[in-house]
C-alpha cells in the first residue's frame, strides 16, 4: 500500500517533467548501447585475432625433442651423495624424431575423457624446387579430416578442396606465399626435395592462407602417407601428436601429466602463446574502462537532473513532510525516480546495444590476411548485457542516492516559513 | 470536563544565528477537545514559531509537548511524521497543493499514507470532505485550474481527510480577499460547531480572532492573554 503510494508519487513527478526524464534516460540508453557495442565488437576482434593462432594451435602438443638427456651416467655414481656434477659440452645422441609407439599413445589419448580429439602430424623440412632455385619450406603431413574437425583446416584453404589431400595421391596444398613464389596453379606439379635428398613430384590441389605471412611463405600441407614417403619412413612414423581438450584451461596440467606418462615432450597452449593472452586482456581492459566511463557520465547526468528536480519540488517535498511523509518516504520516492530512469534507459540500451552490434555484424570486412572473415566480428556474449544492466542500475542508484538524501533532509519549516 | 488534547509545558526556543535571541520564553498552555482557538500577536512575536513546534515539524526547542496524552519528546523523525499524518491537519497561508495531482488525489494523499482505510473508502471520504467544503465539483481538476479561495478549501479538505485530532492553521486567510476569508472562517466555525473539530489558528487578523471561542495573545515570545 505504502509502496504503491510512493510509486504513484514518483511516477507523477517523473511525468510532470517528462522531457528532463527523457533526456536522462537517453543518456543511460546511449551509454549502455555504446558499452555493449564496444565490448561486443572489441571482444569479437579479440576472438578473431586469438583464433588466428589459438584455433590452429593444439591445446597440448606431444613431440620429441633432440636434446641431451637430463640424466647422465655420472649421476648414477653420485646418487645419494652430496656431490653436484658440472658436465660441459654434452651432445645429444643421434635419435629419430619419431614418437615411439604412437599408435598406442593415440589410442590411449582418445580414451581420455578430457580429450576432444587427437590429430597426428608429420613435419618435414623440405626445399621447393623452382627451376634451379630452392626455397626452404615445411610440409606438414596431416590427417585432413581430423585436422579440419579440430583445427578448422578448411577455413584456411582458400582454393581447392582440402579432402583432395586424402583422395588424390601425392597431392599438396601450398601456402599462398610459397605458391606465388613458385608461380604454381591448381593442377600443376611441383618438385619437392626432402632434407635427406629425396625428390618427389606433388600435384597442387589447393592453396592455404593462414593470415600470417611468415607461415604462408613456408608451410604447405600434404597427407601423412605422402610426407612419410617423402621422408622415406614407414607408415607408423609420426612426429607430433596434436591434442585438443574439452577445456583449454586444463592444458598446463594435462601437458605435465602426458610428459610424465609417455616420456616425451609436451607443451601446452598457454606456455606456447602467452603473448596472446596478455594482448587480449589489455584490449578488454581498455574497452571496459571506456564503457564504464560512459556509464559514469550518464550517472552524472541523472544526478544533475534529480538535483534540479529536487530544487524545483522543494515545496512539494515540504508539504509531503507536513502531511505526514517521513524523510525515508521522500528518500524512497527519489530513489525510485532514479531507478526507473536507470531501468527504462537500461532496457532500451540493451536493445540498442544488440541492434548496433547486429548492424556492425553486417558491415563487410574483407582483408586478404583473413580469408574466412567477411564482416566485422561481434561477440554476442550475454555477459556484457548482464554487466551493462547491473552497472546501469548501480550508477543510477548512486546518482539518485545523494539528491534523495538531500531531499529527505529538507526541513519543511524553513521552506514553508520562507514564503 | 473536557479532554485535553494538546499541552505545551514550558516550551522555549532561541535562534542562535548570529547571536542568541530568545523567540519563545517558557510557554505553557493546553487545548481542550473541540475548542476553536486563535493565536494573535504582532509580527515577529513568535506565534508561527510556536505553531511549528506544536505541529512537531520543528524539533529544536526546550520543554515538553504532549499530544493526545503522548509526549513528543525523544520521538524520531519517522515517528513524528506518523503523528502529523494521523493527528494533525495543516492549513498554510499558501495552499501548498501538488500540481502534479488532481484535487481529489491531493485530498486523498494523507489518507493513502495513513493506510487505515481501503483505497475505495479513502476516495469516498475525500469526496465527502470536498462536499463539506462545497467544492466536490472541482474534484477532478488540477489545483492550478482553481481560484485562490477554492485552493485554500482543498487544502482544508486535505487537512480533514484523516479526521485529525486538531487542525492547525498558519494565517490560512492571509492570502485571501475579504469574501474568501469569510468563507474560510465560516468553514472553520462550522467544523468546530457541527463536527466538534479542534482548531488552532495563527492569525494577525484581529477581527477573525475576535470571532473564535478563545484567543491566545502573544508578545515578545510570551503569552500575555489566554
Automatic annotation (TrEMBL), chain A:
GO terms under cellular component: plasma membrane protein complex
Keyword presence, Transmembrane helix: yes
All copies of domain ABC3 transporter permease C-terminal, residue ranges: 290-412
Keywords: Cell membrane, Membrane, Transmembrane, Transmembrane helix
Residue stretches spanning the membrane: none
Keyword flag Iron: no
Family recorded in the similarity comment: Belongs to the ABC-4 integral membrane protein family. LolC/E subfamily.
The protein's name: Putative ABC transporter permease
Species: Aquirufa nivalisilvae
Lineage: Bacteria, Pseudomonadati, Bacteroidota, Cytophagia, Cytophagales
Amino acid at each position: 500500500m505504502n509502496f504503491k503510494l510512493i510509486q504513484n508519487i514518483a511516477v507523477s513527478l517523473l511525468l510532470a517533467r517528462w522531457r528532463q526524464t527523457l533526456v536522462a534516460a537517453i543518456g543511460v540508453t546511449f551509454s549502455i548501447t555504446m558499452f555493449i557495442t564496444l565490448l561486443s565488437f572489441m571482444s569479437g576482434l579479440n576472438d578473431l585475432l586469438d583464433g588466428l593462432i589459438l584455433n590452429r594451435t593444439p591445446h597440448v602438443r606431444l613431440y620429441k625433442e633432440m636434446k641431451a638427456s637430463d640424466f647422465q651416467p655420472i649421476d648414477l655414481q653420485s646418487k645419494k651423495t652430496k656431490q653436484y656434477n658440472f658436465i660441459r659440452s654434452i651432445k645429444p645422441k643421434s635419435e629419430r624424431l619419431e614418437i615411439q609407439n604412437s599408435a598406442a599413445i593415440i589410442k590411449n589419448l582418445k580414451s581420455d575423457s578430457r580429450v576432444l580429439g587427437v590429430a597426428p602430424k608429420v613435419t618435414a623440412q623440405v626445399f621447393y624446387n623452382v627451376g634451379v632455385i630452392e626455397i626452404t619450406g615445411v610440409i606438414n603431413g596431416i590427417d585432413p579430416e581430423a585436422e579440419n574437425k579440430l583445427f578448422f583446416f578448411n577455413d584456411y584453404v582458400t582454393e581447392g578442396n582440402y579432402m583432395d589431400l586424402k583422395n588424390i595421391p601425392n597431392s599438396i596444398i601450398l601456402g599462398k606465399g610459397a605458391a606465388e613464389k613458385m608461380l604454381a596453379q591448381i593442377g600443376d606439379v611441383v618438385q619437392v626435395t626432402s632434407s635427406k635428398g629425396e625428390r618427389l613430384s606433388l600435384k597442387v590441389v589447393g592453396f592455404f592462407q593462414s593470415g600470417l605471412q611468415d607461415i604462408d611463405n613456408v608451410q604447405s600441407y600434404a597427407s601423412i602417407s605422402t610426407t612419410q614417403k617423402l621422408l622415406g619412413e614407414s607408415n607408423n612414423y609420426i612426429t607430433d601428436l596434436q591434442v585438443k581438450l574439452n577445456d583449454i584451461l586444463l592444458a598446463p596440467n594435462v601437458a605435465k601429466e602426458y610428459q610424465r606418462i609417455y616420456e616425451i615432450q609436451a607443451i601446452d597452449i598457454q606456455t606456447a602463446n602467452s603473448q596472446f593472452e596478455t594482448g587480449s586482456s589489455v584490449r578488454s581492459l581498455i574497452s571496459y574502462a571506456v564503457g564504464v566511463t560512459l556509464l559514469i557520465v550518464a550517472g552524472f547526468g541523472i544526478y544533475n537532473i534529480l538535483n534540479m528536480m529536487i530544487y524545483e519540488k522543494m515545496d512539494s517535498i515540504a508539504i509531503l513532510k507536513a502531511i505526514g511523509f517521513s524523510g525515508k518516504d521522500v528518500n524512497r520516492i527519489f530513489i525510485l525516480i532514479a531507478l526507473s530512469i536507470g531501468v527504462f534507459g537500461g532496457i532500451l540500451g540493451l536493445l540498442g546495444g544488440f541492434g548496433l552490434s547486429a548492424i556492425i555484424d553486417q558491415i563487410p570486412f574483407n582483408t586478404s590476411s583473413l580469408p574466412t572473415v567477411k564482416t566485422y566480428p561481434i561477440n554476442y556474449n550475454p555477459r556484457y548485457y548482464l554487466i551493462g544492466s547491473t552497472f546501469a542500475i548501480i550508477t543510477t542508484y548512486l546518482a539518485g542516492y545523494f539528491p534523495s538524501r538531500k531531499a529527505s533532509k529538507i526541513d519543511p519549516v524553513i521552506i514553508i516559513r520562507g514564503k | 470536563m473536557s479532554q485535553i488534547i494538546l499541552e505545551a509545558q514550558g516550551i522555549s526556543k532561541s535562534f542562535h544565528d548570529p547571536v542568541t535571541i530568545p523567540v519563545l520564553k517558557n510557554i505553557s498552555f493546553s487545548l481542550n477537545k473541540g475548542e476553536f482557538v486563535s493565536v494573535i500577536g504582532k509580527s515577529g512575536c513568535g506565534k508561527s514559531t510556536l505553531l511549528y513546534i506544536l505541529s512537531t515539524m520543528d524539533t529544536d526547542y526546550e520543554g515538553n509537548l504532549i499530544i493526545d496524552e503522548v509526549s513528543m519528546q525523544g520521538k524520531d523523525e519517522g515517528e513524528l511524521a506518523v503523528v502529523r499524518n494521523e493527528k494533525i491537519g495543516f492549513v498554510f497561508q499558501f495552499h501548498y497543493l501538488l500540481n502534479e495531482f488532481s484535487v481529489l488525489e491531493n485530498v486523498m494523499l494523507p489518507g493513502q499514507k495513513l493506510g487505515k482505510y481501503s483505497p475505495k473508502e479513502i476516495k469516498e471520504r475525500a469526496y465527502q470532505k470536498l462536499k463539506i467544503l462545497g467544492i466536490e465539483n472541482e474534484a477532478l481538476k488540477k489545483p492550478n485550474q482553481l481560484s485562490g479561495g477554492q485552493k485554500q478549501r482543498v487544502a482544508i479538505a486535505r487537512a480533514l481527510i484523516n479526521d485529525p485530532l486538531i487542525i492547525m492553521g498558519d494565517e490560512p486567510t492571509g492570502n485571501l480577499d475579504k469574501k474568501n476569508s469569510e468563507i474560510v472562517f465560516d468553514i472553520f466555525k462550522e467544523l468546530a460547531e457541527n463536527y466538534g473539530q479542534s482548531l488552532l489558528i495563527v492569525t494577525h487578523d484581529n477581527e477573525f480572532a475576535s470571532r473564535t471561542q478563545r484567543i491566545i495573545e502573544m508578545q515578545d515570545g510570551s503569552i500575555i492573554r489566554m
